[in-house]
Amino acid sequence: MTADEIRALLLDARICRSGDDLVGLDAAEIARWESALGVRFPRQYRELLSAIGARRAQFYVGTDLFRPDLTEAAADMLDENDNPITLPSGTVVLSMHQGYQFDSLVCGGRDDPPVHHFLEGRGWTLDHWPSLTAWIVGAADWHRKYL
Length: 147
Prior knowledge:
5-stranded antiparallel sheet
């Protein structure tokens, strides 16, 4: 899914009123994030950041999203709760909600990798979404249905 297709999907789901509410990161900013995290993002994550990495309207409203510090925050959350889980090398946390759950993917493999979900008290759901595209489409469908 291209950045333009992502924006069109979110507009159709009424996540925003106009395309002006969706602003992506430029290639230089994405490269800075990759450098800071020591990874090369999968193609689909780069497309997502290019579509809405800077401004995302109501997409995952109330949730921290698309910040390079989320991976460290998730690791800290696991440590603080004496959780035996450690994040695999190359993990990037996409979203963190209220400090008790997060979604992540692992870089270095597929162009459109699965998204894993961690919920405090329940643990990991590996491959919760079969791909990042499924995660994006699922969020748009949820918004269309409930908001």
